[in-house]
UniProtKB/TrEMBL annotation:
Signal peptide: none annotated. It comes from the Bacteria. This is ABC transporter permease. The chain crosses the membrane at residues 20-40, 79-100, 112-133, 170-192, 213-237, 274-294. Gene3D superfamilies: MetI-like (1.10.3720.10). PROSITE patterns: ABC_TM1. It is found in: Cell membrane.
């Protein structure tokens, strides 16, 4: 009897946190686990364009996907997209965070202004940039005309979003623009945690500013930098509104990433689109795992 009472007490103690973590576990199950399971199941089903399941389709959806002539190019372009946007975002954010961490007149206003691209809708921002790049009435084309640079870019009919060679760099620029506020503020929060006496000790030792930044600031900023980069990798890989609003992945599939390609496939074959979703999901996991391995995040936890 005493042993049973002891076991019961241990069980009650173990279940004590359940009321606190239970809602979060249910939310994760409904919002994350269940959609992933459904997605994987759908990738093995034959589904009509109206969403009606027509039974099992085996591996045919994956076979059809991998046989798509544009599949390899889309996946490679997705990797280039993620690396380019995340790298530029982090590098520029490091500089901006360092700037906003200094005291200067109007710093508060500058910090507030930095939030604007983050507060605005990503879709709205993409549409505004698309309008500015319009070959006929776009503000950017007008500025290039006034500067005498339009002829070198193709004349009055120059369409920056109509050619892959110019469209992709513009898409990367817009993605970096909307990613900067979060990354900058994440790094700024990391800079605020670095003790001032560490910098004082470095100055007393005669360390230059560059040496101080490389040997003190960056190592101590590493936890915030890891989190900001990781979130950016996941967000950018799954980014949809910017590319879809500005180019629809055109011309051809020359600006389409895997997320855009998946959406386009949905219009003709939902099963194949689900297979592309599974590949997308796997790619995100692989990219995150590689990043965590390279960044040696466990050393930060320990």
């Amino acid at each position: 009897m005493q042993q049973q009472t002891s076991i019961l007490k241990r069980v009650i103690r173990a279940l004590g946190p359940l009321p606190w973590i239970g809602p979060a576990v249910v939310l994760i199950g409904v919002v994350v686990v269940w959609p992933v399971v459904t997605m994987i199941q759908s990738s093995f089903m034959k589904i009509s364009r109206f969403g009606v399941s027509q039974g099992s389709n085996g591996l045919d959806n994956y076979t059809k996907l991998f046989d798509e002539p544009d599949f390899g190019g889309v996946m490679f372009r997705s990797l280039v997209w993620v690396v380019a946007v995340v790298t530029l975002t982090v590098l520029i954010s490091l500089a901006l965070a360092q700037l906003f961490n200094q005291r200067f007149p109007g710093r508060r206003i500058a910090r507030w202004a930095m939030i604007a691209p983050w507060a605005a809708s990503v879709l709205m921002t993409a549409i505004i940039f698309k309008w500015m790049l319009d070959p006929e009435v776009g503000l950017i084309n007008m500025i290039l005309h006034d500067l005498g640079l339009l002829d070198a870019l193709g004349g009055a009919d120059a369409d920056p979003l109509g050619r892959a060679s110019t469209a992709m760099p513009w898409l990367v620029a817009v993605a970096v623009f909307v990613s900067l506020p979060f990354t900058t503020y994440a790094l700024l929060a990391g800079l605020a945690t670095i003790p001032a006496d560490v910098y004082e000790a470095a100055r007393m030792d005669g360390a230059s500013r560059l040496r101080t930044y490389w040997s003190i600031t960056l190592p101590l900023l590493r936890p915030a930098l890891t989190v900001a980069t990781l979130i950016n990798v996941m967000n950018v890989f799954n980014s949809f509104p910017i590319i879809w609003a500005m180019t629809h992945g055109q011309p051809g599939y020359s600006t389409a990433t895997s997320t855009i390609f998946m959406y386009i496939l949905k219009g003709t074959d939902i099963g194949e689109s689900a297979a592309m979703s599974v590949v997308n999901f796997g790619m995100v996991i692989v990219l995150v795992a590689i990043f965590l391995r390279v960044s040696k995040w466990k050393t930060e936890v320990s």
